[in-house]
Amino acid sequence: MAMQQCAANSQIHSAGEKVATLDIILKGSVRMVYPGNKEEVILKTGSVIGLAEKPGEIYVYSYQASEETTIYSYPFEDVLDVDKVISVNKKIAPVVASATVANAYNLYKFLHVVQGEAHKMYQQLQDDLRNYPALCNSMGQKPEDFSSVEELDPAPKKLELHSWQVSFLQSFYNYDDKIQKDLYGLGVEMCVGTIYNTMQLMHDLTTKIKGYKKYMKSLSEDTYAFRSAFNGLSMEKSNMDRVGEEILSDGNVPFVENAKEVIMSYGKVEAHIKDKMNQLLDNYARLNDRSSTDENVRKLRRGIADLFYKVYLKVILRYFKEESKGEKVPLEVELFLKFGFMDERVVSEEDFAQLYRINATYIKDPNHKILTVPEWLRLIYDMELMPSKNEFDLDYPGYLREQKQNGEISEEEVEEMMDDEIERVKFELNNLVALGNRMTFGRISVFSPLFDSVNQMMPLEKCFASQERINGELNKIRETDFQIFYREYQFSDPELDLPAMTLHTECLPYIILMPNIGNRSVLWQEIDGKKRSTSARMLMPIFSLEDFSLAVTRMCGEFRWEMCKTEQGVHWNDISDPSLTAEYADFLQYYRKNSSLNGDQKEKVKKALQKAGNNYRKVFVADYVLYILYEANGSLRLSKVSRDILYRYCPLTFGVSEKLKSNGQYSELINRRANRGSQAARPIENMVKKREHDELYVPQEFYEEVGYLKK
Questions:
Q1: CATH homologous superfamily of 1-78
Q2: Model pLDDT, residue 143
């Protein structure tokens, strides 16, 4: 036993030294620091240094006097020595017990920090892995194979404290004054028992902190090659962007002359097509009124459209080859592929300057979900995705089979064309792009695929469909109708002794930006092929004249309807097999006999059907827009019947529902849905709790499923 005076900032024990003493802090305070960390736990008067470690082992932490400090040291050869030390210091036993609880609580907060660092490190790795292909693409490099990095797991759940441990510690810490008075005063045994229990918890906390540190070290070592590659490319990209900003900052816009010649020469377009296109464009540029609906002008626009996609195909195929080799692409070609720009004579100087700036500052979507047409066609060309359905609802394999049945191609040609990147791109260009461009333009009688300032009705920078604007609106819908993009899938893992079960995963849609100034956004297809866990394909004009919120909400309403029809198949309107479409079709078909509707509401349904040409989908989409944009914000616009169907099949998040709970029109719907969500989540929650109690691995999918069911 010995008393020791320690000067401020003097080292008392260093990490790695052998634990041989218990040191009670009689005066002053001590910093307890995990090596390599800035965070520290301050041990105040009454604290015992050494309780976080075990006798005979080594100090995990370093201990340094944070001010002039007095400590009293006792030999520490066995954990039972704690009882001996406290029992002979009965007067300070309550203070020591209280300080031990406070130190354990602060150590728990440190664990929380370390846990956050590990989670952030893993999440950053996942974000970088998702962004890596796009980064390589933007730098003209081929991505390396980092599949081993993709297989790395997050920090194991066993490193987290059990919920009862957290509750116990927080309660002891929060009620310290009452416990000192009512519990510790009963006798020194209460103090010793508290110290031993808390000491054991400190050992557990220390083990978990070490576990997280080991995990982060291992993660850092295992991902060194990937991080070096990613950070190097990021630095190069940053330097390029900075140079681009400097170029734009002076306001200079390059002079462009005879863009059509540059574009068609780049694509090595055949002479007869080139000559014909030049003639048509010259005639078009000389028109006094390019928005005329005169038959001759319409015929001229149709002629341009017919040749436009032939030129587009030639240009984009060369573009893919040049892009892969890192070759510089002419500005005119980039503007043509992305925006439909082909002739500077029909584009104002102001609009061209905006096209140039938007193109120069454009960054590809790191999630590969919001894509320009050349980016989309690249995925088709690289065979990452199958081409979309054509206007007859045939996918690419189905189209080839039909061609074979009609005797237009042989079986050998079917097999060749299936994997022919050029044929795939041609199919996509002639269907989704050509038809989608016309549909999203919106004004069929004056459609032209050319970028023409005559179609511009607001400044381009205000109607540009940027990733930020689209994601902003899409996220608003996902935060309201949260189930919209979730799909069922079968989960099983025999190795973990887990039964097969149906879970849900979110599958966000592709949004393809058509090269036009348009006023209509549409759903093209709800799934890819027959696999239901695939992304929908939606089309928007790259310059949208439509209200953004309305456009995205309407597309989501169309998706809701079509996805239900796909899932239900031939039973989509069979009320004996209840579903969103079946119930809505039944409601609209028999609204006159519905006693839940008053006279005004029946008249409103009648007018809605007349306006929609008796198309049930259109009526539903209109109601869905009201549901998301108005009802979810407390402004009731729907009938009781339509509201009931929508809330059952497109439930609002609990956050949104909570705001509507006081409204009698929603309270019963919300309560029913809450009960269903709790019932559905209970079996999985019980399974999670049991595995956590048994310290067995719990798949992340289970936590996500509970979150989904209770969202």
A1: Jelly Rolls (2.60.120.10)
A2: 82
